Structures are given as C-alpha cells and as structure tokens.
Amino acid sequence: xxMGNIGKSVIIKGELSGSEDLTIEGQVEGKIxxxxxxxxxxxxxxxxxxxxxxxxVVLGEVTGxxxxxxxxxxxxxxxxxxxxxxxxxxxxxxxxxxxxxxxxRGGVPKAAAKPEATxxxx
Length: 122
Fold this sequence. Notes:
mainly beta
C-alpha cells in the first residue's frame, strides 16, 4: 500500500480526500476524508478540520471533530480539541484532549438523520 506525505511548509484550505495512508506535517483547514486508510497527524501538524479515517494517530494538534471506523490514538504530545467518535480510543499520558468521546460499537458513525414521524398528520 502506498503512503502519502504532506510536508511542514504545506498549507491546505478546503477538502482533502484520498485512498492511501497519509501523514500530515503541515496545516489543513476544512475537511479530511480517508475513510479506508490510516491518517497520521505529525508532530508539526496543525489541523483545523473535520477528520474521517479508518485509523487516526495524533502526534500534533487537531481542532475539530474526528471520526474513525477502527481506532483513534492520541500520543503523548498530541492534542485534540473536539469530539471523538470511534469504537477504540487510546489517549497517552501527557496527551491533551478536550471534548466528548462516543465509542460506538458498530464502527460506523451514527446517522445524523432525524427520526421519521410515525403519527399521521391531521
């Protein structure tokens, strides 16, 4: 499997998506989608985005909600300000986390759809 890399000096604003494992060392603002792959937020990275991946490893800073279908791993100098949705979450001693954790068992994020009304309208 191939591995992509976004360097320290790279700044991306908008949507980032792909179908390979990716390491980000730069800055991303917007949305990151790597639904079937591993995303590593490097030690120099500053992310302000909604993040979706199979596995998310945080060594740098993330501001925004993150959703992983398998696992979120915040390492000892990693920082997350936002909510985490993942069946497995690991937060190392020395890591920073502020937000809520939803450890859904199915590994698929809950749909944000409103429930259907069952009563007939008069």
